[in-house]
From TrEMBL:
GO terms for cellular component: endoplasmic reticulum; Golgi apparatus; TRAPP complex. This is Trafficking protein particle complex subunit. PANTHER family: TRAFFICKING PROTEIN PARTICLE COMPLEX SUBUNIT, TRAFFICKING PROTEIN PARTICLE COMPLEX SUBUNIT 4. Keywords: Endoplasmic reticulum, ER-Golgi transport, Golgi apparatus, Transport. The lineage of its organism: Eukaryota, Viridiplantae, Streptophyta, Embryophyta, Bryophyta. It comes from the Eukaryota. The keyword DNA-binding does not apply.
Length: 126
């Protein structure tokens, strides 16, 4: 699971990100089972008073999360761009171990560029 903080508040540390991802994974799986609509893909956005939590699940099962300020537009395209950057700079990195925190300079650089290019000031994290 990949975590990107797109808001202007503080960043989550690695442990908090893992806890949030674990909780989300459970809620996502339960929502697919409880949905009265056939073909439900789970929760895509969780809207709260102070933030929105967006999720993109790739066909590989990888989930990308972006936390935004409420009502931030255009996050769907940003999620897909982040996944493309992930496949280009993380999965093709011979030193990356799957399910481990991402420690890759090209990932960090291109992720920051994608957020800036999107036209919004944000805090980027993993």
């Amino acid at each position: 699971m990949i975590w990107v903080d797109y808001g202007t508040q503080g960043r989550l540390d690695t442990n908090d990100s893992l806890r949030l991802a674990s909780l989300w994974h459970s809620m996502h799986a339960i929502s697919k089972e409880l949905s009265p609509v056939n073909g439900c893909n789970g929760i895509e956005v969780l809207e709260a008073d102070t933030f929105d939590l967006h999720c993109f699940q790739a066909l590989t099962g990888t989930k990308i999360f972006v936390a935004t300020e409420p009502g931030t537009p255009g996050i769907d395209s940003l999620l897909k761009t982040i996944y493309e950057i992930y496949t280009d700079y993380v999965l093709k990195n011979p030193f990356y171990e799957v399910e481990m925190p991402i420690r890759c300079e090209l990932w960090d650089l291109n992720l920051a560029l994608a957020v800036r290019k999107d036209g919004k000031a944000g805090l980027v994290g993993r």
